[in-house]
Structures are given as C-alpha cells and as structure tokens.
Amino acid sequence: MIKTVHMAVFDTFADWEVGHATAHINKTLWQLEPGTWQVRTVGLTRDAVTSMGGMRVVPDIALDELSPQESAMLILPGADTWESGVLAPFVEKAREFLAAGVPVAAICGATFGLASAGLLDARKHTSNAAEYLVYSGYSGADNFVCEPAVTDGELITATGTKPVEFARAIFARLGIYEPHVLDAWYRLYGENDPAGFFALAEYEEQRSAAAAQ
After folding, report:
1. Which residues make beta-bridge pairs with 75?
2. What's the pLDDT score for residue 1?
C-alpha cells in the first residue's frame, strides 16, 4: 500500500527547507519498506506556483481535494507570505489534520501561521525564534522549546535554518527508517560524518545479500 505525504506549495515557498525531507521520502534507498512512500504537492488551487528559488511547480491536487484520511502527513514549508494571512486555508487544513490524528510538519514561517491560529498554544513547539512567534499574538510562549526541531504528538515544528533536523523528525514520526539507519542518515547529512555513509552502505549491502538468499 502506497502512503502519501502531502507537501503544500504556494508562491515563494522556501524550497530548500523541505528538500531533504521530500527527496528521501521518495528515495527508496535505506528505507524500512522501500516503495511504500510518495510525495504529492498540494496548492490552494491547481494553478502553477513559483518557489523562492524560482522553481515553477504545478500542484498535484488543490487544497479542497485533500483529506486527512488519504494522507500520511501534511508538510508546510516557510514562505514570505505566512504573516499576511493569505495562507490561512492551509492553517485550517492543518487544524483538520491534527483533529483527525494525522501528523503535520511545519517549518519557519509556517509555524507563525499555526501560532496565529492557536494551534501551538497547548503544544510544545519551536520556530525561528521565540520573539518571532510573539508577534502572532498567540498564547503558547510557555511551550516554546529552543531546539532545531520539536515533536509533540502529531505536530512537528522546526526553525528555518535546520532543514536536516526537520527531515529527521519527519522520518522518525513516519517510521521511514529503522532507528539505527536514521542515526546513520543524520550523521551523514546533518554532521557531514563519512561514518554515516559507510554505515548506510553496509546496511544496504547486508539487506541485498539477505534478499538474494
């Protein structure tokens, strides 16, 4: 059974903040159940959008077509427009996901959008800075945690400067890798430690050998 992770796309979305997560969800190498996962994009409409990096993306579906029951997770990247309120429909979709027990992962400006709607008031969370979220008018400052990424139940939040930690939290919540494989993945991509690469290569070699028997 294919499990679909939906990633929100809209004009000025910060493409680099979600690159590690989406690439390795789609990439079967090292996964616990290869071929299980896919990423699909969701826009306010099906009209093309342009990322902050200038990439033109045509959403796979429109937001009103998205149901939590048909998704494994909703990923919300940062953008220049979260503070303006124009992305409020994505916030309401996140509320729907959380109410249904389906994970939501928000990074950078997306955390501001969730905060402004009260979705962080009773959940441990992080963001670019505690002071940044204060401007949202939220009441959750006591639950702010000064960490690169924070998971509280079905909600993952992260600062925009830590996309690798954001990806690691997503993989852990979805169970995409075995724990020791995820540790090796982070050593490679988060710490630039060659030992992580060799651990991953050894894991894949052992798995291939076992499959050939």
Report:
1. 7, 105
2. 86
Is 40 strand, coil or helix? Answer: strand
Q: For residue 202, what is the enclosing H or E element?
A: helix 194-212
Tokens of 35: 């071929």
Is residue 213 predicted with pLDDT exceeding 80?
no
Select from 151, 144, 114, 152 the least CA-distant residue to 126.
144
CATH number at residue 73: 3.40.50.880
Q: Across the chain, what does the average pLDDT equal?
A: 97
Q: Angle 78-84-90 (CA atoms, 0-180°, nearest 5)?
A: 55
Q: What is the pLDDT of residue 38?
A: 98
Active site residues: 108
Residues 172 and 209 in one domain: no
